[in-house]
């Protein structure tokens, strides 16, 4: 086997990687020892900003395979025929912790997917929960501030979290899921994924359908209790990473059954709830799950930084046959992600191998940092042109969407019923699950001022008085004297 020599980044042989060049055996070092300068300078640039949320994550490649023909709903190439397999990338994450955070923390898990389809990349950037804490993107940065460190103490603040939640009744549904068993999965293999928002599908006849995406784990749901997690975090901070990496490395490929719920376009105005409200699910009995395929993860990345830390997912990445919906949160996200990537990864982040579509990319964007894949020898660097540059793709225009109403700031409190769906969820819990749920909430309220706890218990009481009673019991708090204290709107 021939020896491979170290080189500088300019490709020149590097004489010594362990000894600096010095004037005499005891130094000082010479400024001309540029290999040392280059090495130190590179180390200074080894990090990019971590994601502002979902900073700690794990990822793997795999395949999405169609098992049912849904061309009646969508002309997207990814759904073209039974048996069609599309390569894809998944990145799972926790939301609040920094890049070094422990995996076994109670938190929502991110479930971000990039499908390298024949018509470009389709990204579905979801969570392991079917709903979210807020329904207006205007509230997202404030919500995230409550999940991150307090500006003065530099510690997480339970008071801030419960203050925000207790003043935002639309969060009740997601809060109920977060403090249920599903809020602390044993690993990424043991949880469902959801697109969460309502998206749209459109078919070759240019008919639109509203759709929800579900990814049902075939590994079964597994969770840790708070006490188990404490012990596990003491042993390892990388349990989800280790579980996913080791399973795939050993050939035990995790799989999810991919399902959709479908609503005809005109039905959206007839149902008794706002189908574009991400704090709500579509009940299964009215919108049964339709099984459409299977997702399998079967290939670990070769280099974590290059392929997972630099992976850039965005809900704005859609393809013909799949579209957005009026969901206000989704609308906000369509802007936020690509903007984050241009800052975090760089202007030409889409050209990196992990992000690059598996089809030709043609547009009139031009230069900027790291422009390494510019089109070769072209005169078509502006539009319109008479040199046969790329032209519009009218077949990619989605069916027109009828909109109505007056432009103003609409009250985000919605239809006022933030209670029925968490109530339906609580009713699904067995007694032991209810007991753990009460205990998990109580534990997370440690140190929270009493008036905030009372306000939150007032909200829980509207979901089911048994919840408020159960949590109060765990907190050893007496029943309040006088009228109920639920003062948050709703
Ligand atoms: P169903 O009884 O048909 O569905 C209940 C759903 O709840 C199942 O999808 C189940 O997932 C899921 N589930 C069970 N335990 C938990 C938990 N601790 N946290 C989150 N999800 C859980 O009823 P409905 O469709 O009428 O929904 C009733 C409630 O179930 C909703 O209000 C919502 O809170 C929750 N839910 C509903 C979903 C939907 O899309 N309709 C999706 C997920 C949750 P699984 O089958 O994987 O065990
Ligand atoms: C990551 C913004 C709501 C799921 C991010 C990032 C931003 C962001 C800026 C970091 C992106 C990066 O640097 O790579 C927002 C805004 C929201 C919102 C503004 C609301 C208006 C949601 C919702 C979901 C979600 C509702 C799930 C349904 C994710 C996931 C990631 C992420 C999974 C990590 C993606 C990855 O693995 O790289 N979000 N988010 N977010 N968000 Fe959101």
Note down, in words, how this protein is organized.
Its EC number is 1.11.1.6. Keywords: Heme, Hydrogen peroxide, Iron, Metal-binding, Oxidoreductase, Peroxidase. InterPro entries: Catalase (IPR018028), Catalase_3 (IPR040333), Catalase_clade1/3 (IPR024711), Catalase_core (IPR011614), Catalase_haem_BS (IPR002226), Catalase_immune_responsive (IPR010582), Catalase_sf (IPR020835). This is catalase. Decomposes hydrogen peroxide into water and oxygen; serves to protect cells from the toxic effects of hydrogen peroxide. With 490 residues, this protein is of the alpha+beta class. It folds into 2 domains: 57-133 and 184-351, Catalase HpII,  Chain A, domain 1 (Beta Barrel), CATH 2.40.180; 136-167 and 419-490, Hemocyanin, N-terminal domain (Up-down Bundle), CATH 1.20.1370.60. The chain has helices spanning 34-44, 140-147, 158-166, 172-178, 226-235, 239-249, 304-309, 328-344, 420-428, 431-444, 450-463, 465-475; strands at residues 57-66, 85-94, 109-117, 120-127, 193-194, 199-202, 208-217, 255-264, 290-299, 322-323. Strands 1, 2, 3, 4, 5, 6, 7, 8, 9 and 10 form a 10-stranded antiparallel beta sheet that branches. A hairpin with a 2-residue loop joins strand 3 and strand 4. Helix 2 runs antiparallel to helix 3 (158-166), helix 10 (431-444) packs across helix 12 and helix 11 (450-463) runs antiparallel to helix 12 (465-475). The protein is globular. The model is unreliable at 485-490 (pLDDT under 50). Residues 51-54, 57, 91, 93, 110, 112, 125-127, 132, 137, 140, 196, 278, 311-313, 329, 332-333, 336-337, 340-341, 344 line the site of protoporphyrin IX containing FE.
